[in-house]
TrEMBL record, chain A:
Protein name stated in the entry: Cytochrome c-type biogenesis protein CcmF
Gene Ontology CC terms, in alphabetical order: plasma membrane
Entries under InterPro entries matching the protein: CcmF_C, Cyt_c_assembly, Cyt_c_biogenesis, Cyt_c_biogenesis_CcmF
Ranges for domain Cytochrome c-type biogenesis protein CcmF C-terminal: 315-640
Chain ranges passing through the membrane: 6-26, 38-62, 96-113, 125-142, 175-195, 207-229, 249-266, 273-292, 312-331, 352-374, 394-413, 425-442, 448-470, 491-516, 614-638
Automatic annotation (TrEMBL), chain B:
Start and end residues of each Cytochrome c-type biogenesis protein H TPR domain: 143-257
Localization: Cell envelope
One Pfam family linked to the record: TPR_CcmH_CycH
GO cellular component: cell envelope; plasma membrane
Protein name from the UniProt record: Cytochrome c-type biogenesis protein CcmH
Residue ranges crossing the lipid bilayer per the database entry: none
GO biological process, one term: cytochrome complex assembly
Keywords associated with the record: Cytochrome c-type biogenesis, Repeat, TPR repeat
Amino acid sequence: MIIELGHYVLVLVLATAIIQSLLPLAGTLRNDPALMAVAPPAAVSGFLLTVFSFGVLTLAYVTSDFSVLNVWENSHSMQPLIYKFSGVWGNHEGSMMLWLIILTFFSALVASFGTNLPERLRANVLAVQGWITAAFALFILLTSNPFLRLDPAPGEGKDLNPILQDVGLAIHPPLLYLGYVGFSVCFSFAIAALIDGRIDAAWARWVRPWALAAWSFLTAGIAMGSYWAYYELGWGGWWFWDPVENASFMPWLAGTALLHSALVMEKREALKIWTVLLAILTFSLSLLGTFLVRSGVLTSVHAFATDPTRGVFILAILVIFIGGALSLFAFRAPTLKAGGLFAPISREGALVFNNLILTTAAATVLTGTLYPLVLEALTGEKISVGAPFFNLTFGLLMVPLLLAVPFGPLLAWKRGDLLAAGQRLFAAVGVGLVIAAIVQWAHGGGPVLAYFGLALGFYMMAGAVTDLVLRAGVGKVTASVARKRLFGLPGSAFGTALAHFGLGVTVIGIVAVTTFETEHVVEMKPGTTVEAGGFVLTFDGMRQGRGPNYTEESGHFTVARGGVRVTDIWSSKRVYTARRMPTTEAGIRTFGLSQLYVSLGDPMNDGGIVVRVWWKPMILCIWLGGIIMMAGGAVSLFDRRLRIGAPQGARRPKAAAILEAAE
Amino acid sequence: MLFWILVAVLTAAVAAVLLLPLLRAGRSADVAEARDAEVYRDQLDELTRDERAGLIGAAEADLARAEIARRLIAAKARAERSAPAGPARRNRMAQAAVIVLLPAAGLGLYLSTGSPDLPAKPLAARLANPGNDLNILIAKAERHLIDNPDDGAGWELLAPIYLRNGRLEDSANAFRQTIRVLGASPQRLDGYAEALIALADGVVTKDAREALQQSQALDPNNPRTRFYLALALEQEGRREEAKAAYEALVKDSPADAPWLSLVNRHIAGLSADVPGNPTSQDVAAAGDLDAEGRAQMIAGMVEGLAGKLKENPDNFEGWMRIIRSYVVLDQRTAAEQALQTALKQFPPQSENGKQLLALADELAISVKDGGK
């Protein structure tokens, strides 16, 4: 009975969303506060109902209720408990439920914490959220219903895809979706503003915290996904320019641009139209990503054409929301008043430069992702656009942007002085070059360009610190005043510095790994050795093992440096019994920020086994940088709370409740 | 019954929550512009604080203050101009929408896809009380065998049940385990061979033939074994030998044996002329054929495809299909030759060539003079 109740409640979610999408909008059109007031309770109850429905599905997974088709297809009674939980969203139907629960969660947040918003704006925002919720709830119920039953019920499930039986799956999709779906709030704000025809600096201030939160989650989600692919797939790569990866990367690029342009809009009321467009584009790219991943169009255009129900449904959602939003934009944008003026060399100018490059980069990635699909659909020819294309186009685009990053925060609003900013960055440039030179002296070898890449990374890190130091007035005022000033800086200043610093850390990781990593593919027999990253690995032999739902063969390696045993590595290959599917569990050992990565290949006839050994210098910097960036976003987001206790803070009774990122 | 009561209560609760704001009359909305002004006042405060802390120069602060003040004044002016929202009207339409839409949409959609009478079936409860739930009995036996893989009787019990339920791979494995633990017998070997033949869509594969031959060695007069071995000969194209084997089987069988009609049909088929390449009607008819007939059809189709590929070798899909078919029919030399020819058309470096090599790898066909 409980299963059927979960199913019915899911239908109620749809009905509630329809009411939420219609009545508040009618309220703003008729200027009727009672109708507008329906929005918050509808959003909150929609969220609670979704939680119930999702909970029931989870219960079915945990109790291995194979009378539920979805559970039978994606679970197994012998699976460890954590994978029974994460298995809920490890399949198409469940992941759409996750999407829905996060969407309604954000709606409920707007309803509960948006009390400082003008009522009309809040009603419209929630109505737009209601449309999106209704569209996805209908999609789930009609094409991807997780509550369909089997009678008689099978005795055992088909198991979760072994690649997904990993802690990574427990964390990665929720983070990613919190990012993807978080941008729906920005989208709803943009549409609400367009419907009402009012967009001003205050709007940007209300949107920014949502953009910041979504961006932080998306950053963490992408970094997590990259690390997961790195250790689980056993290919030793950390980014493959795979369409699925690109699908999450494009909203990130557009979202980063949105974050920066909203800043300009809030401070100077400039770039209004552009910011609204970016808000629409960012969520559109999220939707496009969902379409690419969920419709099956990536596996094969033909497979998509033979069973198009789901794909066509998502495509319809895509066309209605993106097309509708852009039409509304085209209709309303000319009536919006342009905002403040600024000189090309100014903080605003720098942010425009940032926006231009980021959107071009997003367009490049979009082209590289969609071109093979279009080509296959038109001519039937199958090509893959891989790393060379992206490295050349995307990489080239990024260099000027990365060089300019430290300049942005140092330029004044309205009219800046590039020369003065450059002079202040002398130290940072020096730091970058000196450290790169030291690395060259200590390490040697490698292409010259690599050292410039490293210098770039260190320069960005030093530039971020420079910004804080200058703001604190070090050198101009006494040390104690400078310290007081530093701690008095608004959280968003720290947020900016942290995010830019993290970007520098990631750049260092990327440059170090791409240019200095070593790869050895060798056939090993017990007793043979291979050298990597200054370590000597000795292969000791294989061992058979058995897990709860798999059997495995593990190879044991002893790692030594200078003849002294340092540690050992187990690297295994598993076969999951239910699906008879093999997976690679790479053996990874961390030394500081670098890693030794051992992956087993095929056994040879003469008793040996093919082993791949990588030395990945500074690879952890790539994800560490991502975490620092996310921390920057979080610090910015909690800015206001941090400042409430500060002594200089003026008393502002009403605004204290405002959930926002100040500055 | 309880289910429907809960459904009614839930629907009513949600409807009540949505109706509440509609029923609360007489409230008026605030003026949006007042909220704008709040934000700008906040910005002014922040500016003053930054100036006092020395984060911004006095001249810049004055400029910024003037700009924010302009926005503040504009917002205030707008606030005065715009009339506050009118008093709440009665919203009978909206109330009706809530009262009607929730149950109507809810029940309408649910009843079309839901199974209201089906109770939840958590596995633990089913295992504790299996009743005559065949799937659970199988699952219980499977769990038992995971812990006691040497329980031959258990494997022997499961093997034919799997075969009847279409779990062919599991069935083959269960027969294999039975033979491993309890030793070979004609019954077990034939069952194993049947599972393998069913897995290969009616083709007597090499493994199946070996099992059958072993069975025949144990019991030379088992009609089932003899039939499948004759079928193997027929599928290999050794028509005369197959016909002789079938005829010998008929001779040794009692006159009322149930398998006679099947055997006689095969004899009749072998006496007729060699069939030509199958047409599309033949392919459509294949669905109606029995397993043996289908295997014959496959062999015929492979011949036809080979002919087409000779005329028009630029057919990548065709090569992939024919290599796979040869392996299924256990004609590995033919598969290797086809691969060689295909690789000439699609060089190993090309995308298609790589797929061919991958296929060869998958099917364990050797690639002469190395693609890589």
